[in-house]
C-alpha cells in the first residue's frame, strides 16, 4: 500500500525547512529531494550498533531505530533537503519473483531482533514529518526510481541514500547516490565520475555490468569467471550489453564461451536489474516537503524506547516542530521572569530581608503554592559536592545571583538561615545534588516542597531524561539555554560582569524556570494521583539517600587488589590454554580471528549468521560448548568471565575514596518501575548467586568504630505482591504452608507430594513464578529453561490450571490498563501506556509487557522505599549510632554500632515487615558479619 500524508506544497510554503534551508520558491534555491531506502538503512543501522547495548527494560531491541534516527539527523543537517521520503519494501512477492521464482533466495535469515524495529522506525518517520512510501508488487528501489525520475522532471536535485548498488543506474548530473562507507556516519557521494572511476563504466551502463557479474544478494548468477573489470572492458569496447550480445560470437577464450553459455541468465539479470520509473504512487513528488513534527509523539516514542542521550535534541535541531517558527526563532531563556541582582559583598542579607523574609505576617509571597526557586551551580556525586554559585528567584520576578566567595559574615548567616528554614518553601531541580553540594559547604537545605526532576519522573516515569531544559520545552513551551554538562553549570564568574548578563543571568533563569515548572508539574501530579508519593515517599527519601551516599561503605582495598590480580592471572591462563588448544597464537578479543579459528580451522558448527560472518557472542559460545567436545568455546567463555570480573574489581578500586570507603550514587529517576539504581560504582550489578560474586562482596567490610554489618531483605517479595494483588487463594496458602514455597508450588503443579519435588521441578516453577511477575512469554520461558516451546507452553498451562487467579489477574492488568491508560502500584504510582491501544503490533506488545511488569516491580519498589524511611526515622528518633549504608534491590545494609546489634535488628525487622499490609506476611531475612558476604543469610 502507499502511505500518504497531507503536506502542503513546499514550493509555496513560507518558513524554513530542515537545517534552516529555504524551501523551493523562497529565496530561489533549487529544490533538493532526499530519498531514503528504508530497509537498507535499517539493516545498516542494525549491524553498525551492537544490539545487546541498545534495548529497553522490556526486551525491545532499539539499535536499528537509534542508528536510523542518527543517520537521518546527519542527512538533514548536512544535505538540507527541501523534500524527503522513505521507501520501504513490502513482504509480498514483486514482479521480479513472477519472472524468476528464485529471486533473492538464499539470503541470510533476518536477525530476529530487527523486524520489530522496522514499524517503530516507520512510526518515527511519520512523527518527524517524513512520508513512508511503498507499493505492492514493487521494491523500495522502484519507488525511489519513480520519485527520482519525477524529481528530475520537476527540476529538483535528487539525493538517494541507499546501500543497494542497483541505485547507481539512476545517477545523473542532477542525481547522486549517498552510498555507505566504513562507519555509520560515512556516506560516499557517488556521482557519474565516481561510478566510472570505480567500475569503469558510466552509470547508465552499470545495469549492464551488474547483469554480467551477477548479484549474489539477489540470487542472480553472473557469467562464471567474469568479474567487474572484464565486464567493464567488454561494455566499453561494444558500448552496451545489447551490442555485446549482438557480437557474442566475437568474444574469445573461455570467458567468451561462458558468456555464450549463460546468455539467458545475463539477459534475465538485465531485465530484473532494471528499476521501474513508472510505479503508480498516490503522492506527487512536490508534496513531499518535510512536514511539521509531532513533538509530543516523538517524546513518547523516545521515552518508550528509553533513549538516554542527546539524540532527541539533535533531531529537534533539524526538523520543523509543530510550534513552528516561534520556537525555532525564540532566543534561549526568553519568557522567564527575572529581575536580577548580582549580590556584592554586604548586599545579600538586605536582599533576602526585602525579598525572601520568613512569612510571619501571613503574606502568601512564599507559600507552598509559590515557593522560591533555588538553582545551585557546582559539582556533586560520590557523597560530596562543591558550590560555585547559586541563584534565588522569588514569585515577584526578582532574583539574586550569589558568589559564595564574596560574602561577608552577615551575608553568609542570612543565606544559611534562608536555605535551612523549613518555613520558607523552596523548589529545586535535582534536590539530592543540591543537598550534597550545599552540605559540603556547611549549609543545610530545608523547606523543599518539590524537586522538579522527581515531580516530572512521577508524571512520566517512562521518560529517560529529566534535565531542566527538556522539561521547560515539554511543559512550558520555552527554550532554556543548555548547561555545559547536564544540569551542573560551569560558570565563568569573571570580575562580576554586568548584572543580568552571561552565566549569572542563566543561573537566575534556571531558578526562575524551576519555580515556573513547579506549578505546572504540581497540577499534573494532582491529576495523576502522585502528589502523596512525591511528598510522603520520594522527597523524604532524597535526604536519606544523601546521607547514605555521604556515609559510603568501607572497602578492603588490599583484598580487592588481590582479587584483581587473581582474575587477571586467570584471564592470562585462559589465553595460554586457548593458544595451546588451537596450536598457535591469536587475539581472543577479535571476532574476525575467532571466526577463522572456530569455523575455518577447527570446523565447528556454524552459529547465527551476521553481517561479518558468524556470531561469536556468549550465547553462541555456550551453544558450541554444549554441541561439541572441543574445549575452546568453554575456554573462551572463561576468559571473558575473568576479564569482566577483573574490570569490575578495577572499577571498584578506582572508586575507593580517601576515607577508605566507596560512595555510590543512588538514582531515583532512572527505572520506570520506581526502583532505585546505583552508579559510580553500580553496586546493584554485583552478582550474589555466584561464588565469584559473593567473593567480591567480601571486599565490602564494616568500618572503623562499628562492630559488624547487618543485612535485611525481603523474601520472595514479588511473588508475595502477586499473591496480594491477584487474591489467588492457592498461592496465598502456599506461603502459609510452612514448606519451601517453590517446592510447595511445584507439588501442586506436578500433582506430587512436596517431598517428591526434585531440584529440576522446583527450578522450573521458580523460573515460572518470577517470570510471570516480569511478563514472561512462552518463548521466553523456553529460552530461560532450555526446553522446547511446546513443553514451556504445557508447563505454563499446568501452572495456570492450578493458579487460575494469577492468570486472571495478569489478563485483567492489561485490560484495565488499556481501559484507563495506565497501570498503578499499591501506593498509586502510575505508569501511563498510550501504546496499549496502538495499531502498531510491536508498540502495543511492548506496552503490554510494561503493563504486566510495572505493578508488581513498582509495588516492590514502593515497599522498600517506605521501609527505608521508617528504618531511618526509627534509628534517628532512637538515638542510635547505627546507620543504613546501602539499598540494593530488596535488601538494606546497616552498619551496626557497638552494643546496638539486638535492638537494631529488631527495629529493622519490625519496620521492614510492617511497611505495607499484604494478604501474606512480608517476610524479612536478617544476617550479620564482618563483611557483606558473611552478613548474607
UniProtKB/TrEMBL annotation:
The lineage of its organism: Bacteria, Bacillati, Actinomycetota, Actinomycetes, Streptosporangiales. Residues 1-31 are annotated as: Disordered. SUPFAM superfamilies: 5' to 3' exonuclease, C-terminal subdomain, DNA/RNA polymerases, PIN domain-like, Ribonuclease H-like. SMART domains: 35EXOc (SM00474), 53EXOc (SM00475), HhH2 (SM00279), POLAc (SM00482). One of its GO terms (biological process) is DNA-templated DNA replication. Keywords: DNA damage, DNA repair, DNA replication, DNA-binding, DNA-directed DNA polymerase, Exonuclease, Hydrolase, Nuclease, Nucleotidyltransferase, Transferase. Residues 29-291 form the 5'-3' exonuclease domain. This is DNA polymerase I. The keyword Nuclease applies. Residues 16-28 have a biased composition (Gly residues). In addition to polymerase activity, this DNA polymerase exhibits 3'-5' and 5'-3' exonuclease activity. It comes from the Bacteria. Belongs to the DNA polymerase type-A family.
